[in-house]
Write a structure and sequence with these properties.
Elements: H1 11-16, E1 22-24, E2 32-34, H2 37-43, E3 48-55, E4 65-72, H3 79-103, E5 118-120
Parallel strand pairs: 2-5
Antiparallel strand pairs: 1-3, 3-4
């Protein structure tokens, strides 16, 4: 299952809001920049899941990190279950972000190191798109 946003805002849009464009990313940055982050977290068998909010920049998913919230993953976690379980976590990150903005203002955040992590492009899962029926279907 893919969970992704295909849109990348052009620099003129980011300039129009004077750097006040923010993104809630579905996985730890800069480790999981790019597409299908939740699926990559599962494929890499991560023990923890992180949802950051970062300032958008002209480099995809490399803006300063402003908020991070974390949770442990279940051993049988799937991309679908992680997506569903991350919705309350995303809400918590957004609430924290808005509360900070309301009372303290948004600080400049923590810069990311562009030389760490990975950028996953749209085709990163092409070799892994094989369905097997070794297990009975499970209704969610």
């Amino acid at each position: 299952m893919y969970i992704s946003n295909y849109w990348i805002l052009p620099q003129e849009v980011l300039d129009a809001v004077d750097g006040r464009a923010y993104n809630l990313h579905p996985a730890k940055l800069p480790r999981y920049r790019g597409y299908y982050s939740i699926s990559h977290v599962i494929a890499n068998r991560e023990p923890r899941h992180t949802i950051p909010i970062h300032q958008m920049s002209n480099e995809v998913d490399l803006g300063n990190i402003l908020i991070e919230v974390n949770t442990d993953l279940e051993p049988d976690e799937t991309a679908l279950s992680l997506y569903q379980n991350s919705l309350p976590l995303s809400s918590k990150a957004l609430d924290t972000f808005l509360e900070r903005d309301r009372f303290n203002g948004i600080d400049s955040g923590t810069p990311q190191d562009p030389d760490t992590g990975w950028f996953y492009d749209r085709d990163a899962f092409q070799g892994l798109l094989i369905l097997t029926w070794n297990y009975p279907p499970r209704h969610v």
